[in-house]
Amino acid sequence: MGHTREEKLEALGRVLDTLDILRVKCPWDAKQTNESLRSNTVEEVYELCDALIDDDSPNIRKELGDILLHIFFYSKIGDEKGLFDIADVADALNEKLIFRHPHVFGDVKAETAGQVSENWEQLKLKEKDGNKTVLSGVPAALPSLIKAYRIQDKARNVGFDWEEREQVWDKVKEEIREFQTEVAHMDKEKAEAEFGDVMFSLINAARLYKINPDNALERTNQKFINRFNYVEAHSIKEGKNLHDMTLEEMDKLWNEAKVLEKEGKQDDSSKGISH
């Protein structure tokens, strides 16, 4: 299954050759710009994320190829503008990897992954075109949940963190109480702000207990979808519309789905519902 280094390089070269031809001969490829490709790139990354969550190796391979195409495409556009090409991209990446791993390529000592992470942010600040501040490296366009996790993780890398992870629960409880207070007062704006604080504190707790909150939430999303699809599929089998079912009837099907899920016997009929 594995390929030699030469075969890997040749495969990459073939893609570059194909893209060169498409850029000239295909009307769609020829008119693409950084701006026109951006939304497609975001979509491709999310499709890769779906494949990773599902641990779907064939689709992971497929989606990695789509993202690789976008990397080559942006590099091709940069080359056409006389700004940079794929070799510049690769060289810059290699230089960055070496610079950020002085414990491998230099004399710095780092015995654990934690020690490597602690050095990471300081190294990024020292780079020629690196981050000017610790938090400036967090992209503004990141989804809010992921952004919160990255903000907290970067702050941790410079020592701004709880002394003991158990301490975070007092903060979580405090934020929940404040949210409940504002909800009781029916102040929507303040309640929204406090709910944000609740989520931020829970994301912090997840980080401290080495749980990826985005992955955790997506697993719950998928769990809900699968269970609800089961309910919908079985309502169709019974010739009923969901709107006509009682909450008790839906709860019964929901609990059936939970049992089948735990037994690893989720009914395939529930997977046919579009979502």
Task: Note the main attributes of this structure.
mainly alpha; Helix Hairpins; 3 domains; 12 helices
CATH homologous superfamily of the largest domain?
MazG-like
Helix and strand content put the structural class at mainly alpha
Oligomer: single chain
How many independent structural domains? Answer: 3
Average of the residue pLDDT scores: 89
Treating each run of at least 4 consecutive H or I residues as one helix, how many helices?
A: 12
Strand content: under 5%
The CATH class assignment of the largest domain is Mainly Alpha
CATH architecture of the largest domain: Orthogonal Bundle
Give the overall shape.
globular
Could you spell the SSE succession in H and E letters? HHHHHHHHHHHH
Describe the protein in words.
The protein has 275 residues and is mainly alpha-helical. The chain is built from twelve helices and no strands. The chain has three domains: 5-98, MazG-like (Helix Hairpins, Orthogonal Bundle); 162-208; 214-272. The chain has helices at residues 5-25, 27-31, 34-54, 57-80, 86-99, 102-105, 113-126, 144-157, 168-184, 188-208, 213-237, 247-263. Mean pLDDT is 89; it is low at 269-275.
Task: Sum this structure up briefly.
This protein has 275 residues and is mainly alpha-helical.
Outline the secondary-structure elements.
Blueprint: H1 5-25, H2 27-31, H3 34-54, H4 57-80, H5 86-99, H6 102-105, H7 113-126, H8 144-157, H9 168-184, H10 188-208, H11 213-237, H12 247-263
Helix pairs in contact: 1-4, 3-4, 8-10, 9-10, 11-12
